Amino acid sequence: MAAATRLDHPVTAGGESFAAGRVRAFSQHATPILAVFAVVIVAWYVAALFLNAHQVIELEFRGRTDWTWTEFVRHAMSMTRPVLPAPHQVAVEFFDSVFLRSPTSPRSLVYHAVVTSAATILGFALGAVLGVVLAVLIVHSRTLDRGMLPWIIASQTVPVLALAPIVIVLLGNLGITGLIPKAIISMYLCFFPVTIAMVQGLRSPGTFEKELLHTYAASKAQTFWKLRLPAALPMLLPSLRVAIAAGLVGTIVAELPTGAQAGLGARLLNGSYYGNVAQIWAALLMAALLGLLLTGAVTSIEWLALRRSRRLP
Predict the structure, then answer these.
(1) d(CA 193, CA 133)
(2) What is the pLDDT of residue 6?
(3) What CA–CA distance (Å, rounded) separates 247 from 191?
(4) Of 81, 186, 288, 304, most Cβ neighbours within 10 A?
């Protein structure tokens, strides 16, 4: 019976039950996050009061001297067109746009997020493939290393906000519209971190490892698959998380100058045109959550890939 009890209630090294230890570990990680979140919300409310004060006084209390601070706060937190919407106004707009609208409706944030996600994922795939191919070519060719790598680095000095309209206009003249132009802008931001990380990873094996394979008369292809690629994976996989986040930014930026009717960028423009500030902030919140979702998906793939690689002989 005592043995069964010990199995049913495992105890950590310090005498603490396993469940209690997990709860304590979770609280240690969650407490700082929740504390920062609370500070941000309080600061947001204070900023909303300060920034909306002028409009409230001009629109609601002009010529009045009998208003109270309670009235002031109530009006500042419920303005139709505030300078800065309060957090609860953004939350209401987000809830309405996500849960109370059909996912196929242009007024649904889910609809716009799906459109943006499609271009982001395509651009990410293209950028990852391009980055890996460029890295392999650079590592195996001294000429490409000297002639191509500086241009790859210099390409990132061009602001994507200036590049996006040029690419979209050029492709539009060729009859290429819709998903492809946005994916290309996303690819432009995705390929760089993948290329740099892959180059460093492929070059990371030391002289001893390379000479060992040379003594076994390994070909360049065998050296690549048996040595260089496994050594590059720990650097490649984290770079993919950076790439997917950058690709999302590129897609949203590409949606801004196109006059697109769908996508989070289009949603931001629509809110700007009609002065719906809460809609703009709700779209930004959806973009942030979408970025977390995409990054989490890449992280899960990274975890599965590393777990599988450890099991291989």
Answers:
(1) 13
(2) 46
(3) 9
(4) 186
User: Domain 109-311 in CATH: superfamily?
Assistant: MetI-like (1.10.3720.10)
Question: In the predicted model, is pLDDT for residue 142 greater than 80?
Answer: yes
Which residue type is seen at 305? A
DSSP letter (8 states) at residue 13:
T
* Domain layout of the chain by residue ranges: 2-84, 109-311
Ordered DSSP codes for 115-141 = HHHHHHHHHHHHHHHHHHHHHHHHHH-
Q: What is the DSSP string of 59-106?
A: HHSTT-S---HHHHHHHHTS-SS-SS--HHHHHHHHHHHHHSS-TTST
What are the φ/ψ torsions at residue 206 (nearest 5 degrees)? -80, 175
Cα gap 173→209, rounded to integer Å = 52
Can you read off the two tokens belonging to residue 30? Answer: 């969650």
Which pLDDT tens digit goes with each residue over 174-186? 888 788 888 999 9
**How far is the C-alpha of 306 from the C-alpha of 313, rounded, in Å?**
13
What is the longest distance spanned by two Cα atoms in the chain? 92
pLDDT tens digits for 70-107? 888 888 888 888 888 999 999 999 999 999 888 888 88
